[in-house]
Amino acid sequence: MAFLQHQWRQPAHINGLLALICFALVAIALVLEWVGGMEPCPLCVFQRIAFIAMGVVLLAGMVVPGRSVAVLTVLACLGGIGLAGRHLWLQSLPADQVPACGPGLDYLLGVFPVTEVITLVLSGSGECAAVDRVLGVSIPAWTLLTYGVIGGLAVAANLRGRRAAGGQ
Predict the structure, then answer these.
(1) How far apart are CA 113 and CA 137, in angstroms?
(2) CB of 29 within 8 A of CB of 40?
(3) In a domain, 1, yes or no
(4) Residue 16 CA to chain centroid, in angstroms?
(5) Close Cβ partners of 127 (under 8 Å, ≥ 6 residues apart)
(6) How far apart are CA 65 and CA 59, in angstroms?
């Protein structure tokens, strides 16, 4: 039993577990979409991309844990926090201040350059103001919380592992 406890303290194992959580969250979002009928708004899709980016970095951290994994995870995490914060802000607007609904993300990607699509999505639209809840909490609030927890754990694991290894 002590061997298992020691092994799960290794940054590579923690990175693997956190990567699995990131990918599981994206899978849950897909289930909510396909089975639960919750159509994602463009900001939701971008938040999924942030989780995927975090997961990919954390997978790489299974091979080479350390400061770079912590930094890259935090960058993806901060992007996700910004997206979730913007999403929550749109959801908090009074009905008369909600922006008009825009075209879907598929249409935008087919018509506009990627940089303009990003600008349009970040400006928000009416469908992003709709509030879908899981266990009584809005989905962007859950993602905001989750970005913070995963990012914090990734930083702690990868920087602690670095100090434990003698500062390599």
Answers:
(1) 34
(2) yes
(3) no
(4) 16
(5) 39, 41, 42, 101, 102
(6) 9
Q: How many residues does the chain have?
A: 168
In single-letter form, the type of residue at position 94 comes to: P
Instruction: Report if residue 150 sits inside a domain.
Output: yes
Residue 36 gets which letter from DSSP? T
Give 138's contacts (C-beta < 8 A, 6+ positions apart).
88, 91, 131, 132
Q: Which long-range contacts (CB under 8 A, 24 or more apart) does 31-35 make?
A: 32/132, 32/134, 32/139
pTM score, whole prediction: 0.79
The domain that holds 118 is classified in CATH as: 1.20.1550.10
> Whole-angstrom Cα distance, residue 4 to residue 28?
28
Residue numbers of the domain that contains 143: 10-164
List b or e across 12-43, with b for residues whose CB sees 16 or more CB atoms inside 10 angstroms. Answer: bbbbbbbbebbbebbeebeebeeeeebebbbb
Dump pLDDT digits (tens) for 31-77.
988 998 888 888 888 899 999 999 999 999 999 888 999 999 999 99
More confident residue, 124 or 5: 124
Give burial (CB, 10 Å; 0-12/13-18/19+) of 157: buried
Single-letter code of the amino acid located at 161: G
